[in-house]
């Protein structure tokens, strides 16, 4: 059994070395503009997929996490009383997590779960 494990780890190391060598050779022969174009498209498509997959949860009007509801309630309470540790209990995170949820108050709009999910 020990010989098999040693043989497998030896072959696995050999496989990873061959794979890395072939990838480095393949990347070195590609033109630079192709690599830049590929990386830009990859970043763009990754961000688009992230937004599309997260879009259905933006407008769901229920808390997906108990902390989400607590931070939203803290932000609403801070609107009336900004005395940080005396007016609300933000547990160990402090008021830092509630402050980004207060930006709709600058425009006279009330905050909600959709705003909280877009802001975070």
List strands and helices in order, with pairings.
Blueprint: H1 2-29, H2 32-58, H3 66-80, H4 84-87, H5 113-119
Q: Can you offer a commentary on this structure?
A:
The chain is mainly α and 120 residues long. The protein folds into two domains: 2-55, no CATH class; 66-119, no CATH class. The protein contains five helices and no strands. It has helices at 2-29, 32-58, 66-80, 84-87, 113-119. The protein is elongated, with a radius of gyration of 25 Å.
Level of helix content?
55-70%
Give me the Rg, rounded.
25 Å
**What is the count of β-strands?**
0
General shape: elongated
Q: Hey, roughly how much beta strand do the residues contain?
A: under 5%
Number of DSSP helices? Answer: 5
Helix-and-strand structural type: mainly alpha
Q: Terminal Cα separation, in Å?
A: 51 Å
Overall tally of domains = 2
The average pLDDT score comes to 76
Main sheet attributes: strand count, strand direction, barrel closure: none
The run of helices and strands is HHHHH
* Unreliable parts: 1-12
Comma- or semicolon-separated keywords:
120 residues; 5 helices
Question: Brief description of this entry?
Answer:
The protein contains five helices and no strands. With 120 residues, it is mostly helical.
